[in-house]
Amino acid sequence: MDTIYALASARGKAGVAVVRVSGPSALMAGAALMSRLPEPRQAALRRLFWQGVELDQALVVCFKAGASFTGEDVLELHLHGSQAVVSAVLRALADQPGLRLAEAGEFTRRALENGCLDLAQVEGLADLIDAETEAQRVQALRVLSGAIGERVELWRSDLIWAAAMIEATIDFADEDVPVDVLPEVLPVLSRLIRDLRAEVAGGVVAERIREGFEVAIVGPPNAGKSTLLNALAGREAAITSEIAGTTRDIIEVKMDLGGLAVTFLDTAGIRQTDDRIESIGVDLAIRRAQQADLRVFLQDGETIIPGLVPGEGDISVFGKADEAPGEGLRVSGKTGEGLRELVDLIAAILLKRSAAAGILTRERHRIALVSAIEALEGAQSELKKTEAMPELVAEELRRSARALEVLVGRIDVESLLAKIFASFCIGK
Q1: pLDDT tens readout for residues 332-362
Q2: pTM of the entire predicted model
Q3: Which domains does the chain have, with CATH numbers?
Q4: Distance between CA atoms of 134 and 347, rounded to whole angstroms?
């Protein structure tokens, strides 16, 4: 296998730059640059030379195969972060035989191939790199730590036991096999189905944490939606005017709300109109608002919003509080009145929903669990028959186990790798 190298830190001038080398020749490459390698997993200061020229004074760390991120011999050079120093060191590595520049995500791919990470952990690492909010960081770190793989192992152990019981009735049908084997298996399958369904439900919330919640601001024209959005954003994100129907398209503003990624949507004023262009905007507003995780209904007196009715968990608030004071929750984008209360209420609702998040963060995870559930339900249905066929039950259990193995990348992994690693930087 080739030995690969790359800049592992961000490009550009910095205080420190990290160059990583991984593969069978990694430590030899390090030895060629310095007088003596430090002991494994012990940082040491070394002067780096190549062809008689001093390159830099660096902090050097070595890792032996089996005790590194990639599972291979690894060399890390913590350099002074100038572009000239980094370029000189990379050229020196390129001059050495058997070394080549790493491809995007290749270090992580080797960690996967060497059994240091499962596929779910790789996805967790990608999410951790992309995390922008506290909730995303916590969730990604949980996945990276192996929470999905641990849960899958528990489910698989139950499946293996159930399959063993069923296989016993097939292999030893003519011998003294307890007649109550099948009834013993049923409670295990029921528990597995219940647990997997709970994870699927929690996965919907977890995916929203990863991708961000959407909060739609809806209401009639001139209710103050765009002014409210601008106040939330702290800038002129939307055009405001006294002319009804000014907002035609969906305007989005991304925010960090209580550690959650939230996108606020300013929708077109919803009303009956003969204007063809405005009508298209109204239809789009209704559809997008229906798809949003939460809707803020900005009321304008007794005006009824056609096509939309506040549902459970939605917020109703009176706009333009500076012009029409009164009771109830009121907000003004111009003066800021009620803005803090509204933001706190939205954050409280979304944080409460986030508490139900499971460990599954991607659509791929959900599909795998749904497949496993369908197979388990097939096995359960067959077991409940008067003349149950153990062979069919065993096959359904194997199908369920395969779905769980797909979840952590033990099988059918190649088709996913290119897509996943495309988001990684060269040094990761």
Answers
A1: 777 777 888 888 898 999 999 898 888 888 8
A2: 0.75
A3: 3-118 (3.30.1360.120), 124-208+362-409 (1.20.120.430), 219-354 (3.40.50.300)
A4: 14
